[in-house]
Amino acid sequence: MCGRYNVTDSPEVQELMGQLGLPGIAPRPQLNVPPGGIGEFVMEAGGDRYLEPGIWSLLIEPRPEGHGYRPNPKFHTFNARSDRLTSSPLWKKVYPSHRCIVPVSAFHEWQGKQVYNIHPKGEATALAGLWQSWHFGEEQVSSFTVITLPPHPRFSHIHPKSIPLMLRPQDFDLWLDPDFHHTDAFVHLMKTHIPTPLICEPVRSTQDLKPVAEIEELPAD
Fold first, then answer.
1. For a Cys staple, 8 with which of 19, 54, 105, 159, CB 3.0–4.6 Å?
2. 3-state secondary structure of 5
3. Cα 147 from chain centroid (whole Å)
4. Strand 38-45 and strand 139-149: pairing?
């Protein structure tokens, strides 16, 4: 986790963007964004916030065929483990000043062949991430990663290895502030937790999000 997500044109996404200080702006609807795909993230610079497109994988490189960019094939950097943010040479370089939020409707997990569409109850999802800007010749390209937490006992029957870090509105301002470098303030966020009731919907596919079985609600911690 997190390996797929979707964004829909919904009131929940619009409300989240308003909470992020970008009312009237929304990410492009997409049903199945994969690692290496183009997503959008919210970042702050110069006192303003922006919704920026980026490649989902922090380390990227030009494609060998000569056009476009791809994730670096030597490293899997679409997720960043929370326990390595201050120790990994890659993450600790960007963590203090390049934090972002990836606004999505829901993220996907698989249990065998069954796909689950997962999101906070009645809300869109604010995934915590890190971002980077790259210069290839005269072209500037952005990339991002999603932070994951250790496995949660109430979530492990769906995904036993991790759960994404989902932020609440009270976290947004400090998390996005590029001038706030004291990452010790985020230690409490890095412990595995479910911050608000979480809806797990068994759906037909990542393209058809209609539930096909009983919806499970996981209570918050």
1. 105
2. strand
3. 7
4. unpaired
pTM of the model: 0.97
Q: For residue 75, what are the CA distances in angstroms to 28, 57, 70, 108?
A: 27, 9, 12, 22
Q: Give the Cα separation of 119 and 135 in Å (integer).
A: 34
Q: Which helix (H) or strand (E) holds 170?
A: helix 169-176
Q: Which phi and psi angles does 201 have, rounded to 5°? A: -105, 115
pLDDT at 1 over 70: no
* In the chain, % of residues over pLDDT 70: 99
Q: How far apart are CA 90 and CA 96, in angstroms?
A: 12
CA distance 162 to 151: 4
DSSP 8-state class, residue 82: G
Sign of the CA dihedral 82, 88, 89, 90?
negative
The angle formed by the CA atoms of residues 133, 62 and 131, to the nearest 5 degrees, is 20
Residues 108, 211: Cα–Cα separation, whole Å = 13
Q: 165 and 155 in contact (C-beta within 8 Å)?
A: no
DSSP state of 195: -
DSSP string, 107-164: EEEEETTEEEEEEETTS-EEEEEEEEEEEETTEEEEEEEEEEES--TTTTTT-SS-EE
pLDDT for 61-108, tens place per residue?
Answer: 999 987 899 999 999 999 999 999 999 999 999 999 999 999 999 999
